[in-house]
Amino acid sequence: MALSIGLEGLAGTEEIGPGGSRRIAITVTNTGQIVDQFILSLTGLDEAWFTLDPRSVSLFPSSNARVELTLHPPAGRQGRAGDYPFTLLATSVSNPAAATSLSSELRITAEGKPGMDVRPLRAEGRSASFRVVLQNPSNVQVAIEPAVRDAED
After folding, report:
1. In which element (H, E) is residue 108 found?
2. What strand order describes the sheet that includes 22-30?
3. Which residue from 8, 66, 126, 133 has the fewest beta carbons nearer than 10 Å?
């Protein structure tokens, strides 16, 4: 007797800003011929970045249940911009070899932009000393190559 599990609801890419959240309705279907329990797990993301509720469902044949996956990457620089692939897995309790999965990608969007402060803003004479402070409050790593020029030349 073959056991089958249906799993649907994830888009190819789920885009969220750092500190944001997105609730996704996942449908688990027992397409087999016996009553079964299915355990859900998610791999590829830090446990603190998602909530899966409930983590198991018991289903009669041909019935389904809704599971809520909430993605909530950390705020600020800890929610570094980029693409993070992950996989949602549903496994049968009565036959652990029977499993199905959905793959997706969490895309954390870039927020903020680098800045620079120069003091003093103007100087007179042939030489001067300046203090340059570079700031990067964004969640994206930035490579900076400073270049100096005189606006009067």
Report:
1. strand 99-108
2. 5-8, 22-30, 64-71, 50-53
3. 126
Looking at residue 123, what DSSP letter applies?
-
Structure tokens at 1: 């007797």
| Strand-pair category, 14-16 with 99-108 | parallel
Max CA-CA distance within the chain? 90
> 0.90 cut: is pTM over it?
no
Cβ–Cβ < 8 Å for 49, 24: no
22-30 and 5-8 as β-strands: parallel, antiparallel, unpaired?
A: antiparallel
95-129 tens-digit pLDDT:
998 899 999 999 999 888 888 888 888 888 878 88
Q: Please tell me whether residue 49 adopts helix, strand or coil conformation.
A: helix
